[in-house]
Specification:
single chain, alpha+beta, FAD/NAD(P)-binding domain, D-Amino Acid Oxidase, Chain A, domain 2, 2 domains, 8-stranded mixed β-sheet, 20 strands, globular, binds flavin-adenine dinucleotide
Length: about 375
């Protein structure tokens, strides 16, 4: 055996799983096809939103509460600032499913919040235009994460604790058998007891016969400048997610002191082969997000000043899959985070370590079970 465990894909979830496994004294190998913190997948683009009053369903709230503590733990172990909490605004019509999910999360878990509308909204957050049918819900335990630094921090911490990471090493083959798993990467074979696959948007490429459909999808991030940039500093401008007429506009305050992130992440396009991701941003894409910014955030200058393209793995129901791959002994898959997984990464890393070492976790992840009835 070369190690007890191998992790394929040292991106968001892989780096956190390596950290948690190494912390538990497990001998673990990581394989990453590019460098750590690379921008060819779902890591990159300066910030990720952290929210607890959850649009995607209240079943995530316990995981997010735990994730928050683990982000702080990773910060303490590495000395790097990863999570900044200045609150987050969920903006939309309260009758919509996503806004109702936010309210249900708040009510069931008594999350700290404020409901803001009308004149008060205008006074408190003049950066936004709010329509009469809309409300703002301020999630007080929301903020932004620094994705590149977070992944690098977890991977380097894992190495300090004894993990061995093979960079620029693409896994080509996985060969499970009753006593372990053989992995072939860069023409070399490695033998381990258990395997964790965290390959995100690349999952289908590595596992073409996987029954669960995990589509690679393309997301475009865009940044804008502002008439008065001081109004978009983190202390006064929270992260936000806003649903309106076909847009899902999400964004963060200015982090570099010159630009504000505001992106349309609604209905990302399918990517047929992640090796050939189109990283060009079309005029139509830029004009669409520019229109949304002009209408909804009048304090910004609606000419995009920066745009970049990333990918994530999406499932049919937009919830990830976690569990042993049917028909592949000793091999656990954690993938398909569908554009909203970053915030929960450290708790997913913990769950990965538990599933590998104990064969179970006490956390409720039934909505993420790989064996659930996904419609294909
Ligand atoms: C633009 C964008 C914005 C987002 N915004 C948010 C947000 O605000 N908040 C939030 O919570 N979530 C957000 N998400 C979602 C979140 O970033 C992803 O769900 C999460 O990062 C996915 O993690 P992952 O580990 O599954 O994949 P990744 O982080 O992409 O990691 C997969 C890794 O596997 C490697 N790999 C693949 N195949 C192989 C192979 N054969 N051999 C070796 N290595 C391999 C890849 O190179 C990559 O490094 C966003 C995603 C995108 C793309």
């Amino acid at each position: 055996m070369d190690a007890d465990v191998a992790v394929i894909g040292v991106g968001t979830m892989g780096s956190m799983a390596l950290w948690q496994l190494a912390k538990r004294g497990v001998s673990v190998l990581g394989f990453e096809q590019f460098g750590i913190g690379n921008d060819r997948s779902a890591v990159g683009g300066e910030s990720r939103l952290f929210r607890t009053a959850y649009m995607e369903g209240k079943q995530y709230v316990p995981l997010l509460k735990e994730a928050r503590k683990l982000w702080v733990q990773l910060e303490n172990e590495t000395g790097n600032t990863l999570l900044t909490l200045h609150g987050g605004l969920m903006i939309g019509d309260p009758q919509t499913e996503v806004m109702q999910n936010v309210m249900e999360s708040i009510e069931e878990f008594q999350l700290e919040h404020e409901i803001i509308q009308g004149e008060t909204a205008f006074k408190k957050y003049p950066q936004f235009k709010l329509f009469p049918e809309e409300v703002m819900i301020l999630d007080k335990n929301a903020g932004f994460l620094r994705p590149e630094l977070a992944v690098i921090s977890a991977a380097y911490r894992a190495e300090e604790l004894g993990a061995e990471i093979h960079r620029f090493t693409k896994v080509e083959k996985i060969l499970p058998d009753p006593t372990g798993v053989t992995i072939v990467a860069n023409g070399k074979s490695y033998r381990v007891g258990k395997l964790l696959v965290t390959t995100g948007a690349w999952t289908k490429k590595l596992l073409p016969k996987l029954v669960t459909n995990i589509d690679a999808r393309r997301l475009v991030l865009t940044w804008f400048s502002a008439k008065k940039l001081v109004e978009f500093k983190p202390e006064v401008f929270p992260i936000f997610a806003r649903m309106r007429r076909g847009f899902r506009l999400t964004g963060a305050p200015t982090l570099d002191g010159t630009m504000v992130k505001a992106s349309n992440t609604k209905n990302p396009d399918r990517v047929s082969d992640p090796s050939f991701l189109n990283r060009d941003v079309s005029l139509e894409e830029l004009m669409e997000v520019s229109d949304a910014v002009r209408e909804l955030i009048p304090g910004l200058i609606p000419d995009p000043v920066r745009a970049s393209v990333y990918m994530d793995g999406y499932t049919e129901d937009d919830h990830s899959v976690i569990g042993e791959i049917p028909g592949m002994d000793h091999t656990i898959l954690i993938s398909g985070f569908s554009g909203h997984g970053f915030k929960m990464a450290p708790v997913i890393g913990t769950i990965a370590a538990e599933l590998i070492l104990d064969g179970k976790t006490n956390r409720d992840i039934s909505h993420l079970d790989i064996k659930r009835n996904l419609v294909y």
